[in-house]
Amino acid sequence: MTNKIDSFHSFNDFYVFYLTQHNHPKCRALHYLGSSCVILSIVVSLFTQSLWYLLLAPVTGYGFAWLGHLLFEKNHPATFKYPLYSFLADWVMYFQWLTRKNTYSK
Question: What stretches pass through the bilayer (predicted)?
Fold first, then answer.
């Protein structure tokens, strides 16, 4: 379960690497599910004015994503070494999925 994470000079360079770490469709599906749960948690928190739902956002978001890496990709999330880039890349990948832009790496 190892992967080589090099130094990246830009977010675009990182994103190319990020996509290679998310090739398995079930891993991506779990990422999309987690991101959707984050959005839902935030919306419910706003409507109910309860901060408890905000606590669910990172738990569901990262929980589903990390489960995908553990069960399907068999690699370690880049979150631990590149937290900001990984956070941004996850939302770019999610947006591209929502807009049906193909993000599968070759």
Answer: 29-47, 53-72
What DSSP letter does each residue of 1-28 carry, written as one string?
Answer: --------SSHHHHHHHHHHTT-SHHHH
Distance CA 73, CA 62 (A): 15
Q: Answer yes or no: are the C-beta atoms of 89 and 15 closer than 8 Å.
A: yes
Taking only the tens place, the pLDDT of each residue in 77-99 is 989 899 999 999 999 999 999 99
pLDDT in tens, 48-59: 999 999 999 999
Residue 29 to residues 4, 76, 95, Cα–Cα distance (Å): 23, 17, 13
Instruction: Of 72, 81, 44, give the one whose Cα is nearest residue 60.
Output: 44
Dig out the tokens for 8 from the structure: 């990246």
Angle between the 11-20 and 83-98 helix axes, to the nearest 10 degrees?
A: 70
